[in-house]
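User: Hey, quick favor. My workstation is busy. Could you predict this chain's structure for me?
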Amino acid sequence: MSEQQTEQLPGDLVRLVWTLHRALNQRQAPPTGQSPRPLAQVEVLRLVDGQPGISVREVAAALSMQPNNVSTLVTQLSRDGFIDRRPSTHDRRFAELYPTGKMITASSEVNEGLNKAITEALDQLPPQAAQRISAALPELWELARTLTQAP
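Assistant: No problem, here it is.
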């Protein structure tokens, strides 16, 4: 990789990630019978779905939000039947968040739609493109982990 390409890489990655993020948000249809939810609620749902038992404080830290704002989102999502708030098994003063059956069903439906959209897009690329993208995933995940750990 040339020095110029190396210097352009951060900007190229930022543009790519934002473009993918926007494209996925536009392709993400709400689950059957649901209306679209604000992005903050979707982010909370995705975290709880991926990390059952996560606390409000951990969600707040992961999303760089205030715990009271996350608590409000969790209250709304609990009221709507997507999140089950249970007392912590370690410290009953705190709550752990779990996906409900409704959330698991909705999440599966949304993920199936996104997977289908990505599969269709990959099918339109040259044959070796999917292999190159797949080969780059470990390094992209490592980049994401490194950025997440940065102050």
